[in-house]
Design goal:
Layout lengths: L10 H9 L10 E2 L6 E9 L2 E6 L5 E6 L3 E6 L5 E3 L14 E6 L3 H4 L1 E9 L5 E11 L5 E10 L11 E6 L6 E5 L17 E5 L21 E4 L3 E7 L5 E6 L5 E6 L35 E3 L5 E6 L12 E5 L4 E8 L2 E9 L4 E6 L5 E5 L4 E8 L2
Antiparallel strand pairs: 1-2, 2-25, 3-4, 4-5, 5-6, 7-8, 8-9, 9-10, 11-12, 12-13, 13-14, 15-16, 16-17, 17-18, 19-20, 20-21, 21-22, 23-24, 24-25
Length: about 375
């Protein structure tokens, strides 16, 4: 049952949440919000944060900042440290530092995976994923950083990199979201990896058994296609893979991702082009994969996790979506292959990232300069 103490946002409130200026940061202040029943504590600030991950077996987390800094933060502290050895990034627009995740064997290997935008020839850019060993004795630093995957081809523009990273539950496969780079048609072009989800081995080579493995080269990476701008990818507790992506003017969607499926972009959408030109709706092409949910007005997702902690037992197994446009967290119940929105938790600002702490409480990162890191726990 939906908690009556948490109220849904009206369309007017959605507009304000999407367009409003960031709230000024106040560290270590307990604030009362519309989320009665939760405590929301501001604990630190970051400059244009984009992603966050806790390091297994520790109380440490890594945070990427778009301009090219990697931060090491310890729970309970208001400050963070720079990690040395990071790569240069192509900062601008939606580009810069992207995702960060710990390798499945991090406890023994110390390896982490990072994504970022890099420049190419002739004013082109593309996302890359690299891996390195994180060294924590002395000054935090990356050692042996190696690029293992690149978007192909590099194109002009500074948007829709996507470059989110997830490992399969067994740790054997690396999944990467590759946006359409605002070019649309490459999402249906199976000679490149734009507008795709790719499945790789941990070293970046195409995984055996991929739908187009027999073609070799870049096509052998592809797991699914017809995607736009995928800013969340996660495995549900039952082992199914889900993504969340931005639609154009309307039509954000959450998808159950299956191998060899075409998710329709730009052939269909539940939104329209920004200039008002209509796009055929998803339902007109039953031969294409249909979204589990599509949103109008949009929620403008930041990222997505599946909740597995004990702090909020009523949320077990549900998708928690960081929402830029909706200004908070969108909670989605998953039942096998279907999904339904059940609640919106209003936080009053654009939320770029959500992460589950080791104790099952949550942290969210606000978007933009002086983005607050906020701790969300049950009110005692």
């Amino acid at each position: 049952m939906t908690n009556p103490l948490l109220r849904s946002l009206s369309p007017f409130a959605l507009l304000l949440a999407s367009c409003g200026a960031p709230i000024s940061a106040q560290k270590a202040e307990l604030v009362e919000t519309a989320t009665t029943g939760l405590s929301v504590t501001d604990v630190a600030t970051f400059d244009e944060p984009w992603a966050m991950t806790f390091l297994p077996g520790t109380d440490l987390a890594l945070v990427t900042e778009k301009k090219g800094r990697l931060k090491l933060w310890r729970e309970g502290e208001a400050t963070s440290s720079d990690v040395a050895g990071v790569p240069p990034v192509a900062y601008g627009g939606q580009g810069g530092f992207g995702d960060v995740v710990a390798a499945p064997d991090y406890v023994s290997s110390g390896m982490i995976y990072l994504s970022w935008a890099e420049p190419g020839e002739g004013d082109t850019r593309g996302a890359v994923v690299g891996r390195a060993r994180l060294v924590l004795d002395g000054k935090p630093r990356l050692e042996g950083l190696t690029v293992i995957w690149r978007q192909h081809p590099k194109v002009s523009g500074k948007g829709h990199y996507s470059h989110r990273i997830a490992f399969s539950p067994d740790g054997q496969y690396l999944f990467i979201t590759s946006g359409d780079r605002q070019k649309m048609t490459p999402a249906q072009d199976l000679t490149g990896n734009l507008g795709k989800i790719v499945r790789l081995l941990p070293d970046g080579t195409p995984a055996p058994g991929n739908p187009l493995a027999e073609k070799g080269g870049v096509p052998a990476q592809i797991w699914s296609w017809g995607h736009r701008n995928l800013l969340g990818i996660a495995f549900s507790p039952d082992g199914r893979l889900w993504d969340i992506e931005h639609g154009p003017a309307g039509g954000d969607e959450i998808n159950l991702v299956e191998p060899g499926r075409n998710y329709g972009w730009p052939l269909v959408s539940d939104g329209d082009h920004y200039d008002g030109r209509p796009i055929p709706r998803n339902r007109t092409r039953p031969d294409l994969a249909q979204p589990a949910i599509s949103w109008n007005p949009v929620i403008a997702p930041g990222n997505m996790i599946f909740y597995t902690g004990k702090a909020f037992p009523q949320w077990q197994g549900q998708a928690l979506i960081a929402a830029l446009g909706a200004g908070g967290i969108v909670r989605v119940a998953i039942d096998g292959t279907t999904a339904r929105e059940v609640e919106r938790i209003e936080l009053g600002n654009r939320i770029r990232e959500i992460a589950q702490a080791p104790d099952g409480t949550l942290y969210v990162l606000e978007d933009g300069e002086d983005g607050r890191l906020r701790h969300i726990a049950p009110k005692r």
